Fold:
Amino acid sequence: MTTPATATRLKGVLAAGLTLLNEDLSIDADATIQHTRWLLSHGCDSVLIFGTTGEANSFTIRERLALIDAIGRSNLPKNRLMIGTGCCAVPDTVELTKRTLDIGTVNALALPPFYYKNVSDDGLFAALARAIDGIGDTRLNLYLYHFPALTGVPYGHGVIERLLKAYPGTVAGIKDSSGDFDNMKAMIARFPGFDVFSGTEEYLLDVLRLGGVGTISATCNVTCAAARDVYTNWKGADADRLQATLTAQRKAFANVPVPPSCKAILVRHGGRKSWLAVRPPFMRAEPAAIDALMARLQAASFTLPAPAA
Structure:
């Protein structure tokens, strides 16, 4: 059912993968696995399942467990996956993460318990500690998901320092989706060995030059080729030009909802029409909005191989 887990940490270009749906808005496990495989074959070192772009919080725990099990039965390389397992209820985080480990994937991404705002550092640390202790598996590489604009609950440096001291070897890194490059820079300097991923490919080159490990990005569902060019050549003379192209492609998505927009782009490049489906509160992308987005992308030298439909 599974391939063996490995403790090797992830790095490079990670797409925050889409969760593809059927017309009735149930998860299309086969299509999601197929898209994940396509990403791994077209520039992505790894793929995050059930991040924000994967609409994780629009699905029940049962639905998420079912997709994790389907991934476990698939031939996807489990050591090239990360699965989002952080929930408001610590027992849900524990259950999802244990199942993730059961299928042979050791990399999990933890949103903070985000419903209650203005919680203390002690409270946030206690929630993560209870989750890690409840999971009780030394194979785990736990990545923190820092997205304060959406969650309202930041992972401050004090909490990170406490977690690293309490759980060395388990707390592996962070996806920083704050858009605050100074915060990424400060974490790389303050926490050696703590793997910092930019939450936008706009900062991929800068993060790599400082000692970060890569990007985990929503738009890498379609910008994967340009992101791959930067990561492969980041030490070369052409790195800044390649990053400028990647940044322009990322900025084309400004002020558009990313999950429905990426799904629409894939459909226009040969994907099945059912892939347009999203769970409310997202709505399907309007054709005129995608026309405008595609014009901006094409002006930024965008190319995309046809997805496996």
About this structure: Residues 121-135 form the longest helix (15 residues). Confidence is low (pLDDT under 50) at residues 1-6. The chain has one domain: 12-238. The CA atoms of residues 5 and 104 lie 4 Å apart.
